[in-house]
């Protein structure tokens, strides 16, 4: 082979080797995550609703937080929780500032306004009175004549929300305030999620001063709301929940929090 031919072959091999090296580098970047950032969904939730979702240090934890995180992961994205007071959560969802928010009681107006994904679990809405109370509540008609503590901005289901002639005190901003109001005698009854009320009563050292009344007012399905402007995210979350039910992931999370 002549010297010019040899030089040309060498140059061609150098080009080939450089191309292969560049390809390997690009592949390594993809495998290490350096080529593209992961898709992150910003999801709002109540910052103080244990045991379902609450802030622990710099993390949002709880039953519902774990379910939502698992759904997002199943959908192929990452979650960025935005814990806020409940009124702020609703405002952020209304303005489309977040990709989703949880956990919502299903109401006809919400199904019209948002994509409602779920339910991902059920909850029990109950009334609580002070220990030793003789108050009996069989239905909402038995509530007349009593002062009932409720959290402003919360929905408790149509049986209570739509009832007329009741004396409601909605000065409480969260369940802890609600429990303390009842223990202090500022209200005769409080309404809320059974597990949340029990948690805050124990936290405040007031569990012995409260009694949960029977029967349960309602079994409440809980949903994740997605703005109508984000149909693709709604579809992926819906499929992820179906997949978690089928593969046992949802049942495993629920069992861990029993």
TrEMBL record:
<dbReference type="Pfam" id="PF00497">
    <property type="entry name" value="SBP_bac_3"/>
</dbReference>
<dbReference type="InterPro" id="IPR001638">
    <property type="entry name" value="Solute-binding_3/MltF_N"/>
</dbReference>
<keyword id="KW-0732">Signal</keyword>
<protein>
    <submittedName>
        <fullName>Amino acid ABC transporter substrate-binding protein</fullName>
    </submittedName>
</protein>
<feature type="domain" description="Solute-binding protein family 3/N-terminal">
    <location>
        <begin position="40"/>
        <end position="258"/>
    </location>
</feature>
């Amino acid at each position: 082979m002549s010297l010019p031919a040899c030089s040309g072959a060498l140059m061609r091999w150098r080009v080939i080797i450089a191309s292969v090296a560049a390809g390997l580098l690009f592949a390594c970047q993809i495998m290490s995550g350096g080529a593209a950032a992961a898709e992150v969904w910003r999801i709002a939730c109540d910052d103080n609703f244990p045991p379902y979702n609450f802030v622990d240090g710099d993390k949002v934890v709880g039953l519902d937080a774990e379910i939502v995180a698992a759904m997002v992961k199943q959908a192929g994205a990452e979650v960025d929780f935005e814990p806020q007071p409940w009124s702020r959560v609703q405002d952020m969802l209304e303005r489309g500032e977040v990709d989703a928010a949880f956990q919502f009681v299903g109401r006809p107006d919400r199904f019209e306004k948002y994509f409602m994904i779920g339910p991902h679990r059920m909850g029990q809405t109950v009334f609580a009175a002070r220990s030793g109370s003789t108050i009996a509540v069989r239905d909402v008609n038995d509530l007349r004549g009593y002062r009932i503590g409720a959290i402003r901005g919360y929905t408790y289901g149509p049986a209570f929300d739509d009832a007329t002639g009741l004396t409601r005190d909605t000065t409480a901003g969260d369940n802890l305030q609600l429990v303390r109001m009842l223990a202090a005698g500022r209200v005769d009854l409080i309404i809320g999620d059974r597990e949340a009320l029990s948690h805050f009563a124990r936290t405040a050292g007031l569990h012995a001063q409260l009694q949960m009344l029977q029967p349960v007012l309602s079994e409440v399905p809980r949903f994740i709301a997605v703005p109508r402007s984000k149909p693709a995210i709604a579809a992926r979350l819906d499929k992820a929940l179906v997949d978690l039910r089928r593969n046992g992931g949802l049942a495993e999370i629920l069992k861990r929090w029993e």
